[in-house]
Amino acid sequence: MKGQKAPTVYLDSHATTPVDQDVLTSMLPFFTQKFANGNHRAGWETAAALEGARNQVASYLGARPSEITFTSGATESINLALLGLADSNPHNRQHIITQRTEHSAVLRCVEALGRKGFRVTMLEVDAVGRIDLNQLNDAISDDTLAVAIMLANNEIGTVQPVQQIGEICRKWNTKFFCDLTQGLGWHPVDVDSMHIDLAALSAHKIYGPRGVGALFSRRKGNKVSLNPIYFGGGQERGLRPGTSNIPAAVGFGTAIDILANTAISDFKSIQAMRDQLEAHLFSTLEGIQLNGCPVNRHPGNLNISIPGVSGEELIGALPNLIFSTGSACTSGSATPSHVLSALRTDPSLRNKAFRFGIGKYNTKEEIDYVGEAIVEKVQALQARRKRIAIA
After folding, report:
1. How many CB atoms lie within 10 A of CB 54?
2. Spatial CB neighbours of 174, under 8 Å, sequence gap ≥ 6
3. pLDDT in the model for residue 335
4. Is the pTM of the predicted complex or chain greater than 0.85?
């Protein structure tokens, strides 16, 4: 490749994904042609499009359309779910359970509830990031308002035993909140069979637009009571007031439909590329460590640590490769990853971790190139350190 410009390869699909061309095409008319908002024929047309998108999201989750509230993204959905549930709290339960590796949006909400008097139990995770169901069984009680456990971790890709968690919650009539954001599309989701009562999801992780997400809140069977956390004109049944973002919601609906039709084939392709990169790196580099679960994980996730080389160094040495040294949501923080800290990994490796998020637009040829480029740079950096140490 001498004399040629190195190709740019995007490997950060856990942070965000490009908008699918079909998603963009579905959105465009709602910016310039079908833009009206009001109680008239033109407004009814956009309102119908919004309800169509709501039906698409609900259908994918096995939910009712009335159980879907559109939001600005998963973070808002998380806040509405946890703070809205705590504010309603018809049975005056005062206990919340979550895990140390949960997304920061959940952890900050739980901290806020703790300051309001709620008792918080923080479940530990094992060396690969999975909770112990026995610990959950020991912690839950008839005073537990909610258990908040995500489907797939956004840093290490570890998938939790959501089905069993839901079953435990149902026995205690405790609400189960599940952040589906990172696992959506890669692991089958049916909110009824999984006993999920509240769920957050976001479009930009599945090749949809940024700035739109959804909250599932159960309205049948084990019905959830939520209070709004802010107020306005009464849109979204009063739970999420404000003028609806019709183009984004339409794009979200289209992205969900594409996901429903392609998830199985995409899963196999993405997992094959991830395994290809993992096999190359682990067969070549000494001391390399996998962070997360080798079995129960997101198909495109590869979070690793390499002795003597940090993610920041690799990003500097390979600027054409776009990957992450941690969660994009906390990438501005200088503190070590709370997820890797919870795994109790060696601090010298924990602070050097980096994450590849492989997506549906990556190719096998790109992965071949990435593996070779990383090995070459890592070996060069390690050799340089040895020379300096000897000198």
Report:
1. 23
2. 93, 140, 144, 145, 146, 147
3. 65
4. yes
Domain carrying residue 358? 9-17+263-390
> Which uninterrupted H or E stretch holds 201?
strand 198-202
pLDDT value of position 328: 44
- The CATH number that applies at residue 326 is 3.90.1150.10
* Confidence band, pLDDT 50/70/90 cuts, at residue 334: low
257, 281, 300 - which closes a domain: 257
Span 300-327, average pLDDT: 90
Residue 63 within a domain: yes
How distant, in Å, are the alpha carbons of 151, 352, 385 from that of 388? 45, 20, 5
pLDDT in tens, 42-86: 888 999 999 999 999 999 999 999 999 999 999 999 999 999 999
CA angle at 107 for the pair 225 and 349, rounded to the nearest 5°: 150
Task: Give the DSSP letter of residue 188.
Answer: -
- Return the pLDDT at 128: 96
Instruction: Say which CATH number the domain at 139 has.
Output: 3.40.640.10
Indicate the pLDDT class of residue 1, thresholds 50, 70 and 90: very low
pLDDT at 298: 97
Our CA dihedral for 41, 42, 43, 47, rounded to 10 degrees, sits at 90
Q: Which of 225, 257, 289 corresponds to the end of one domain?
A: 257
Same domain for 101 and 48? yes
Catalytic residue among 109, 169, 178, 329: 329
Two structure tokens written together for 114: 């703790």
Provide the Cα torsion 160, 162, 163, 169; round to 10°.
130
Return left, alpha or beta for 226; rule: phi > 0 is left, psi -120 to 50 is alpha, else beta: beta
385 has pLDDT over 90 = no
Q: Which among 322, 320, 348, 321 has a CA at the least distance from the CA of 336?
A: 348
Closest CA relative to residue 302, chosen from 282, 330, 284, 321: 282
Task: Say whether pLDDT at 371 is over 90.
Answer: yes
- Report, as an integer, the average pLDDT of 282-297: 95
Question: Phi and psi dihedrals of 224, rounded to 5?
Answer: -100, 135
- Tally the domains of the chain: 2
Q: Is 329 a catalytic residue?
A: yes
The answer to the question of residue 39 being in a domain is yes
Answer yes or no: do 127 and 45 share one domain. yes
